[in-house]
C-alpha cells in the first residue's frame, strides 16, 4: 500500500516537469491539478480492457495528467484495480504518490470483477448475511448510503487502489436516495454519511470528501432529484463546524449539458446563482464529468466551435477546451481507455484555456438572480 497522499509540494513538482502544457495546471484544494483528468467508467469486464486502461493510465500520468477519477463499482472494481497496478509501477519508476490526485466514489452495489451467476445470492452471501447491509437500507436495489456500507466500500477502494489515503472521496449520486425517501430523511442520511466521512479524514483514509452527481446539481429546485449546496454545506457544518472537509463536487458539464453555468438553480439565503458560482463561493473544488458525453461530442460539432476555439484539429479537443475553459471548473474529466485517447486529450492542454470572450461566443453565463 502506497503511503501518503497528494501534497502541494508533490503536485507542484509534477507540474513543473511539463513546460509544454501552458495553463494546464491550476490550484485546487491546495494542490496543483491538471485541467484534464482521466476517467475510468466505461468498458467491458475483461482482461483486454484491463490492459487498455492500464496503458492509458500509464500514458496519462507520465504525460501531464495528474488526476485520476474512478469508483468502486466502475467495471465491478476492475478500474480501481487497474489504477492501483499503474500507481505501484509508477512509484517504482520515481513518480511519487504525492504527485498524483486519486478520486473515488462509494454508494452503489458492486460485484467482484464480473457479474456472478446469481447476483442476488452472491450479494446476500457477501454483504447481507455478514450484517454489512440490510435490504431495507437499499434504494432501488442498487444504492446505499449507510455509514457501514460506505465504510466497507471505502476499505475496498483503498485495497483496490493500493493507497493509504484517497485524496477525494465522493458520495456517488446521492440524489438516487430521493427516489424513495423524503427530503428530510435524505438529509438525515447525508448527516450520518458526513459523520462517517469526517471520521475517515481523521483516520487518514481520505483527505476530503464531496458528492458526485448526475442529475442532482443540474436539476431545478422543484424536481425531486434536486440537490441544494446550501443544505449540504449546512450538514457538513453541523457535523464538523468550520473545519469540515466537504470540499468537492462532481457533475456533468459539456456542450450538450451546460446547466452548471446556464441555470441559476442554487440559493444561498435570498441570493440565487448557478451551481458553479455557488460552489466557487463556498470554496468547493469542481470536477466536470462527461466532458465528451461518452464520445457523443467528439465529432460532428457545428462550425461555431472551430471559430470559438481555433488551433485545434478535432471536435474532441474543442469539446475538452470548452469544459476546461468554463469559469469555475477546476478539472475536465475525460474517459480514456487507449493511449491514442490520452494523446488526443493532451493536445487540448497545449493551449491556454480560452478567454471569457471566446467562451461567451457559445454561452452567456448566468449570474446573480437571473
How would you describe what is shown here?
The protein is α/β, with parallel strands linked by helices and 370 residues long. The protein has a single domain (8-359), classed as Alpha-Beta Barrel (TIM Barrel). It is 38% helix and 16% strand. The chain is built from 13 helices and 12 strands. It has helices at residues 8-16, 47-63, 78-92, 119-128, 147-161, 183-202, 229-240, 259-262, 275-281, 304-308, 315-325, 339-348, 356-359, and strands spanning 25-28, 31-34, 36-39, 67-69, 101-106, 166-172, 206-212, 246-252, 266-268, 271-273, 285-289, 331-335. Strands 3-4-5-6-7-8-11-12 form an 8-stranded parallel barrel, surrounded by 7 helices. A hairpin with a 2-residue loop joins strand 1 (25-28) and strand 2 (31-34). Helix 2 (47-63) packs across helix 3 (78-92), helix 3 (78-92) packs across helix 5 and helix 5 crosses helix 6. The protein is globular. The mean pLDDT is 94.
Strand content: 15-25%
What can be said about the biggest beta sheet? 8 strands, parallel, barrel
How are helices and strands ordered from N to C?
Answer: HEEEHEHEHHEHEHEHEEHEHHEHH
Fraction of residues in H or I helices = 25-40%
Low-confidence segments: none
Cα Rg: 20 Å
Structural class of the helices, strands and pairings? alpha/beta
Record keyword descriptors for this entry:
370 residues; alpha/beta; TIM Barrel; 8-stranded parallel barrel; two-stranded antiparallel sheet
Summarize, please.
This protein is an alpha/beta fold.
Amino acid at each position: 500500500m502506497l503511503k501518503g497522499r497528494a501534497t502541494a509540494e508533490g503536485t507542484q513538482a509534477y507540474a513543473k516537469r511539463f513546460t509544454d502544457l501552458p495553463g494546464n495546471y491550476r490550484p485546487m484544494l491546495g494542490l496543483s491539478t491538471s485541467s484534464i483528468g482521466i476517467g475510468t467508467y466505461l468498458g467491458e469486464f475483461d482482461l483486454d480492457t484491463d490492459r487498455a486502461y492500464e496503458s492509458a493510465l500509464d500514458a496519462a500520468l507520465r504525460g501531464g495528467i495528474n488526476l485520476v477519477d474512478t469508483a468502486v463499482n466502475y467495471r465491478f472494481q476492475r478500474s480501481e484495480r487497474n489504477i492501483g497496478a499503474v500507481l505501484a509501477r509508477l512509484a517504482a519508476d520515481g513518480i511519487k504518490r504525492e504527485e498524483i490526485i486519486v478520486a473515488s466514489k462509494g454508494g452503489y452495489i458492486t460485484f467482484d470483477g464480473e457479474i456472478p451467476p446469481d447476483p442476488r445470492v452472491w450479494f446476500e452471501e457477501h454483504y447481507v448475511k455478514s450484517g454489512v447491509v440490510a435490504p431495507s437500507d437499499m434504494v432501488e436495489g442498487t444504492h446505499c448510503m449507510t455509514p457501514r456500507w460506505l465504510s466497507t466500500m471505502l476499505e475496498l477502494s483503498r485495497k483496490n487502489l493500493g493507497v493509504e489515503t484517497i485524496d477525494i472521496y465522493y458520495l456517488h449520486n446521492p440524489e438516487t436516495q430521493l427516489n424513495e425517501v423524503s427530503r428530510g430523511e435524505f438529509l438525515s442520511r447525508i448527516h450520518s454519511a458526513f459523520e462517517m466521512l469526517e471520521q475517515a479524514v481523521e483516520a487518514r483514509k481520505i483527505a476530503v470528501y464531496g458528492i458526485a452527481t448526475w442529475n442532482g446539481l443540474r436539476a431545478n429546485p422543484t424536481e425531486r432529484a434536486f440537490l441544494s449546496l446550501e443544505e449540504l454545506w449546512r450538514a457538513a457544518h453541523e457535523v464538523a463546524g468550520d473545519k469540515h472537509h466537504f470540499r468537492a463536487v462532481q457533475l456533468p458539464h459539456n456542450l450538450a449539458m451546460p446547466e452548471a453555468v446556464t441555470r441559476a438553480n442554487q440559493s444561498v439565503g435570498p441570493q440565487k446563482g448557478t451551481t458553479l458560482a455557488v460552489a466557487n463561493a463556498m470554496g468547493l473544488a469542481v470536477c466536470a464529468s462527461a466532458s465528451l458525453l461518452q464520445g457523443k461530442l467528439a465529432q460532428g460539432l457545428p462550425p461555431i466551435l472551430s471559430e470559438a476555439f481555433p488551433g485545434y484539429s478535432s471536435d474532441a479537443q474543442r469539446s475538452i477546451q470548452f469544459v476546461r475553459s468554463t469559469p469555475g471548473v477546476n478539472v475536465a474529466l475525460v474517459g480514456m481507455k487507449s493511449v491514442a485517447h490520452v494523446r488526443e486529450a493532451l493536445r487540448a492542454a497545449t493551449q491556454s484555456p480560452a478567454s471569457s470572450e471566446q467562451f461567451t461566443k457559445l454561452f452567456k453565463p448566468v449570474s446573480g438572480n437571473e
